UniProtKB/TrEMBL annotation:
<dbReference type="Pfam" id="PF00132">
    <property type="entry name" value="Hexapep"/>
</dbReference>
<dbReference type="InterPro" id="IPR041561">
    <property type="entry name" value="PglD_N"/>
</dbReference>
<feature type="domain" description="PglD N-terminal">
    <location>
        <begin position="3"/>
        <end position="81"/>
    </location>
</feature>
<keyword id="KW-0677">Repeat</keyword>
<dbReference type="InterPro" id="IPR020019">
    <property type="entry name" value="AcTrfase_PglD-like"/>
</dbReference>
<dbReference type="InterPro" id="IPR011004">
    <property type="entry name" value="Trimer_LpxA-like_sf"/>
</dbReference>
<dbReference type="Pfam" id="PF17836">
    <property type="entry name" value="PglD_N"/>
</dbReference>
<keyword id="KW-0808">Transferase</keyword>
<dbReference type="InterPro" id="IPR050179">
    <property type="entry name" value="Trans_hexapeptide_repeat"/>
</dbReference>
<dbReference type="InterPro" id="IPR001451">
    <property type="entry name" value="Hexapep"/>
</dbReference>
<dbReference type="InterPro" id="IPR018357">
    <property type="entry name" value="Hexapep_transf_CS"/>
</dbReference>
<protein>
    <submittedName>
        <fullName>Acetyltransferase</fullName>
    </submittedName>
</protein>
Length: 210
């Protein structure tokens, strides 16, 4: 089995480890984290902080998966690792449904119970979290996160780095702007501009994001 490292040692790393183990495609060498208080996570050893990465590359370990929920930090680490010569791997649960007609980018994480339906596009480094739904013809741009139980109907577009909170719902054809946040449980009935936070039913803007 090909060797892989996990970047990040928080809660999201626990589920990514679980998925990679259930895929039976990769041998997880360990995880890195800049908090050096770790010893192991779900039985997977702590390797060190980011300073260890060049040595791992020299040993021929090239595959990585960034297991960090924060979209901006996940983007930064993804780019740093790709630029350094590492290769992103996707972690797709065997208990998710991903249509053969969907396009899946690099370093994508799809959790158990999620559905990615026909002709949807999921770009690089996106998280499709537990029990969420991305229906036909949706486009999820890089570094976005669809949180647990969020439901996107057909033809929804989610901009780079946007975050759709747990249980949020988006009606067909809506565009969610890049780096915007949709609050948990919100129902989005109209387009959301970039860099704002919207909440409620129907979702309304409560803040601009810097
Ligand atoms: C596996 C995992 O755990 S993945 C992680 C999943 N996480 C989530 O889904 C979290 C989603 N986060 C939220 O919904 C947050 O409440 C946010 C991001 C929308 C807002 O957070 P903050 O910016 O800290 O806003 P804050 O808590 O100060 O609330 C501001 C106002 O909006 C209201 N509000 C906040 N979130 C919501 C919401 N989801 N729905 C309705 N109203 C909301 C608050 O009640 C408050 O109203 P008030 O000013 O009248 O008192």
């Amino acid at each position: 089995m090909e060797k892989i490292i996990i970047i990040g040692g928080g809660g999201h790393a626990k589920v990514v480890i679980d998925i990679l183990q259930s895929m039976e495609t990769y041998d997880i060498v360990g995880f890195t984290d800049n908090d050096d208080q770790h010893l192991s996570l779900c039985g997977i050893p702590y390797l060190g902080n980011d300073a260890i990465l060049p040595a791992l590359l020299e040993k021929g370990i090239t595959k990585f998966c960034v297991a960090i929920g924060d979209n901006r930090l996940r983007k930064k680490l993804f780019h740093n690792l790709v630029t350094s010569g590492f290769k992103p791997a996707s972690a797709i649960s065997p208990f998710a449904y991903v249509s053969h007609h969907a396009k899946i980018g690099r370093g994508v994480v799809i959790l158990p119970g999620a559905v990615v339906n026909s002709c949807a596009t999921i770009e690089d480094n996106v998280i499709i979290n537990t029990l969420s739904g991305v229906d036909h013809d949706c486009i999820i741009y890089s570094h976005a996160h669809i949180a647990p139980g969020a439901s996107l109907t057909g033809n929804v577009t989610v901009g780079e780095g946007a975050f759709l909170g747990a249980g949020s719902k988006v009606i067909p054809g809506i565009e969610v702007g890049e780096w915007s946040i949709i609050g948990a449980g919100s129902v989005v009935l109209s387009n959301v501009p970039p860099n704002v936070t919207v909440v409620g039913v129907p979702a309304n803007k409560i803040a601009n994001r810097g």
